[in-house]
Fold this sequence. Notes:
Radius of gyration: 17 Å
Number of strands: 8
Bound molecules: pyridoxal-5'-phosphate
Amino acid sequence: xxxxxxxxxxxxxxxxxxxxxxxxxxxxxxxxxxxxxxxxxxxxxxxxxxxxxxxxxxxxxxxxxxxxxxxxxxxxxxxxxxxxxxxxxxxxxxxxxxxxxxxxxxxxxxxxxxxxxxxxxxxxxxxxxxxxxxxxxxxxxxxxxxxxxxxxxxxxxxxxxxxxxxxxxxxxxxxxxxxxxxxxxxxxxxxxxxxxxxxxxxxxxxxxxxxxxxxxxxx
Length: 219
Ligand SMILES: *Cc1c(COP(=O)(O)O)cnc(C)c1O
């Protein structure tokens, strides 16, 4: 199968999951994760009509996306990987959505950079639903306080929550937890679900799913 065919197949599966979950058609955004693939591999996917892409490294993205964004100005780029403070300026300059606001320090640096650059990428808070020590993210019980701190102290508007469930666990309870937290915090956007579990995530209310290998193939 070509990458265009796999994209069409994944889109069909997203649409079917929307129908099964009683969600309206087109209510789930497909974020195509293009990390490790170069501009020449990504271009046909944009030409096939895909507009929203996710990357996990700032520096890698700087090497391929400025050119593609010039060619295709409607592209929307999401940062879905951990962000270091010294890369925050570059991230604010390049990304349209930053999904990995995961600690107070990075929230402060982002707020400063957004003021300086006059750019306002949309923001998600990453929640460590499995409380995994090696994984980034705000603890579930601290999520709403963190979202309020971002809004009230830093003037940042948080659009939604994002999670990456533990690899070895059934993801359903993690998706349910993220949905519950979003409701408690007054947020309505949920970034959850990857190639192996995006249909489950849609059943639990995902508004965007991040799908890489099911479209681009093995990394
Ligand atoms: C790589 C990555 C994905 C996509 O994973 P696949 O299993 O290839 O679909 C989704 N979310 C994050 C945060 C990632 O780093």
